Amino acid sequence: MDRDTKFSEAFRVILEQTGVEAVRLPAHSPNLSPNLERFLRSVKEECLERMAFFGERSLQIALAEFLSHFHAERNHQGRDNRLIEPGEEVGHHR
Prior knowledge:
Layout: H1 9-17, H2 34-46, H3 56-73
């Protein structure tokens, strides 16, 4: 996570209590997480902004379905617009 004030100590405690290890990026390092930022943009634009959620459980279900679609059911431009096959090693494609 970056050093935005929205990632307060209270927020980091909640993450820790749920078993998530928070890793803070060094100050003034905006280019360290472009892949993550692009992924989060996809989550927001393709899932969160298109649905209305009624409680945390409905949000969790929608995110799980989106992740399944994102990783397995959609074509990947960086992989010559093909699906990633089960068991295929996913690395940097050239």
